[in-house]
Amino acid sequence: MSAVKLEKTIAQLERRLLEELQTTVEPLVARLDYLEGLLQGKKPSEKNVELEVDLPGETREFKASCPVVPTAEPSADGVEFAGPVRKRQTIMKVEVVDEEPIPFAETVWNVTLVLGHTGAGWLDVASACFLTLLSTFMQVVFTAVILSDYFRPASMFEQTGAAQKWRSAAAHDVKHMDLSLTSLVSRVCNDDGSLILSTGQAGLINEINQFVGMKPHEFAPTSVPPGMTMCMMCIMLWCIYLGGELRAVLVSLMAANQIPRGRNTVLIQGAFSCISRLRFLTYCLVRLTRFGIAICLLYAGILWLALTTNITDLILNAVALGAILQIDELVFAALFPKKIQVAIYELESVRVKYTKRWSQLESALVILVLTLITVGSFLLWVQPLTDQMLLVKQEYCAGNQDFVVGLNQDWQTYMGFESAPFGRTGGTSLGELAALEHSKQRLSNGTATYIQFSTSLDAFEIDRVKPLEELANEFPHCLDYDGWFPELVNSFGAIFRSAAALAQRPAATSCAQLKDLCDLPTSRALRFVCGETCGCDDPQAQRWFRVPRQGCPAKCEEKAKTAAGSLPCEDVDWNNSVWRSFWDIYPSVLSARIGKDVMTTPLGDVVATTQSFMLEVGCPGIAMVPEDSLTQGHWCAGSSELWAPLAHLCPVSCSCQELGEAADYCPATCSCADAPVFPAQGGITSCEEAVPVGICRLQFESKEFCAKTCDLCGPNATNSSFACMDGRIPTHLGVGNCSDIRAAGYCESLRRMDSNVAAVCSKSCGLCSEP
Questions:
Q1: 339 and 480, same domain (yes or no)
Q2: Is the distance from CB of 221 to CB of 210 less than 8 angstroms?
Q3: Is 293 exposed, middle or buried (0-12, 13-18, 19+ CB in 10 A)?
Q4: Do 195 and 226 sit in the same domain of this protein?
Q5: Residues with Cβ < 8 Å from 359, sequence gap 6 or more?
Q6: Which sequence ranges are marked TM in the entry (predicted)?
Q7: Both 373 and 465 in a single domain?
């Protein structure tokens, strides 16, 4: 309330107090005059009706004392008695009608009541009219903007399609997997604070969790959603706020309706004697305009609050809406001309009659409207929004989060990888460990523990995509990390430390501490830095993964071939530990290669049969089944991707004696070529010259220098010194053993048919000569 109106109200209260005091004292003065007249013997005058008035709000009892004409009443003895004037009291119960003083608010909407009665100049009047229109225009524009689709918060109902698109496109892309090998969707749905991608999706999911009251791993609320509660409270607050404004408009119209109408408006010191019909209609139109704006703001505000998904924004939005509603009062207080302001300040309140029935009807109407708006908002917007939030989160995060995919362009097929769960308890990944360790070491100018730095950006880009096979072919040594030169340790030491960290043995300092891991499919880096310990240079060590593509340096492969030259050209026994270990892990190797259990594929039966057959038959089995059914690699020649040549274990079954110098994978001892340099002695300078003098009868010299000339190769060798042995025939063939085959006379027939059984029974069927 303004200071002018406050002073005026105080003056009115003072005047009313004086009037009530005078009304109370006058009966007392009259009674004193009456008594004084009786004492002086004067005839008292008749008095007016005395009215005792109770407080408003209750049923009053009006005691009316009316003067009664004196009458002669018979006495008990029949004599008339002329008594003094008597009074009889009549008690009436009347329904009380309260009158509520309704003041005119200090706002631009009441300017139409005082224009022409302010004494203001034409510029002030024009300014007041312009500001009234400006205030109306601003509130209309604000309302229109709030109701527009551009201002309305992003609809949660439109997020389902976006969630499906994101989940199917970027969420599981291998390019977005971090150093901890965690997928992007797992990080987004678990509120990872280190995100640099999909921060919008992460923020939306976080809003949903806060609104519905869920933890990141939950998909259904366990209690009443706090966002729903807060939203309903803000909607009720906004309804109450607008209810006060709507009620003020209606009451002001009732007050204006109480002013008598006339041809002209009569306004004296802020009190209306009468108001012209044109001014009254104009005022009603202005106030109804305000009523319409308030209704639109009520709807816009409820819709805005009901669609707000950020629980922290609800109160701020409610306050912002209140500021829009107060634009007219702010414009009036800050910009209106002073003389017009004072004229509005001085407007007297108008008393409006309120009956008890009308008051109760108004209360019931207020409660009904508030209930309908609240329940309607809940059913139309708030509850569907909450349900949609749960659906959107399911689209973003439900199901398997821990996998990534990438396109193999050559295969034109997407490849998958099971990524690590978010916040896994298995420790820090190698990528995270490398970054953390070096970030700490750089502070003290230390050397990188797990990072191999390149000398330039170009070198970095080349090294980043260089295959391990290429590095293994370029590496100039076949040495364990323990025996490396300082230059090699500085250049490639990070590979050994990374291999130890991947094996969960970061404290390892030598290859011997990691030897038991050499045969794992994932130990490529370990085989590169520990070639000797892992048997890359041993021709009779485990054959799986002893190739450059699987980490073994090419120099180790050369050493293995050289070492094979000193081995006898004979097959290992079927019970040999290397042979059995090779076939024991055969299914697991193929499973690691294709990324799933090979036994569950259509080739599973073939793999199982091949494994059992090779374990039972031994080396002759690779002559009967020369190729791997999955990779189509030749067992004897080896596979550049998976295994070293088995010819070092099974040279006889691999026909190394027959292939001669063309078979570079065969041991040198099985070569049928003459030595390129013949040791000249006594004028003999070649094998042809040495044959007549009996070199072929010398076992070592003939094999070492003149194997071809002396015809020491193949099953028809005339002077073979190689071992001749039978293999084992699988029992499921039902043909017994090699002795049974020979006794039945089947050897010659099988040999002519080029049967593998004949090859297995080489000794019994006479396909080779005794040593």
A1: no
A2: no
A3: buried
A4: yes
A5: none
A6: 125-147, 224-244, 288-308, 314-336, 361-382
A7: no
Residue 190 belongs to a domain: yes
State whether residue 651 is helix, strand or coil. coil
Residue 374 shares a structural domain with residue 252: yes
Domain that holds residue 217: 97-401
Q: What is the DSSP letter of 246?
A: H
| Residue 392, token pair as written in the block | 């959107």
User: Which residue type, as a one-letter code, is found at position 481?
Assistant: Y
User: How do residues 372-391 score in pLDDT, each as one tens digit?
Assistant: 998 998 999 889 889 989 99
Q: How far is the C-alpha of 132 from the C-alpha of 477, rounded, in Å?
A: 93
Contact between 696 and 719 (Cβ < 8 Å): yes
Where does a domain end: 531, 564, 597? Answer: 564
Looking up tokens 């106030």 gives 287
Angle at CA of residue 474, ends 471 and 479, nearest 5°: 90
Burial of 124 (0-12, 13-18, 19+ CB in 10 A): middle
Angle between helices 430-441 and 486-502 (to 10 degrees): 130
- For tokens 């973003």, the residue is 396
Q: Which two tokens stand for residue 736?
A: 């017994």
Q: Is 380 within 8 Å of 235 (Cβ atoms)? A: no
Tokens, residue 341: 């302001």
The DSSP code for 380 is I
The single-letter code of the amino acid at 540 is Q
More confident residue, 637 or 766: 637
User: Please, are residues 742 and 761 in contact by the beta-carbon 8 Å criterion?
Assistant: yes
Determine the Cα–Cα distance for residues 314 and 84; give it in Å rounded to an integer: 80
Own/partner pairs, 191-200, CB within 8 angstroms, 24+ separation: 191/216, 192/422, 197/170, 198/166, 198/170, 198/171
Q: Within 326-382, where are the H helices? A: 327-335, 338-345, 356-377
> How many other CB atoms are there within 10 angstroms of residue 398's CB atom?
12
Sequence letter at residue 303: L
Is residue 521 within 8 A of residue 545, CB to CB? The reply is yes
pTM for the structure as a whole: 0.55
CB-based burial of residue 235 (10 Å sphere; 0-12 exposed, 13-18 middle, 19+ buried)?
buried
CB atoms within 10 A of CB 666: 27
Strands of 266-268's sheet, edge to edge? 261-262, 271-276, 266-268
Q: Is residue 80 a contact partner of residue 72, using CB atoms and an 8 Å limit?
A: yes
Provide the pairing of β-strand 60-67 with 87-94: antiparallel
The residue type found at 332 is F
Cα separation, 655 vs 664, in Å, equals 12
Residue 729: predicted pLDDT: 63
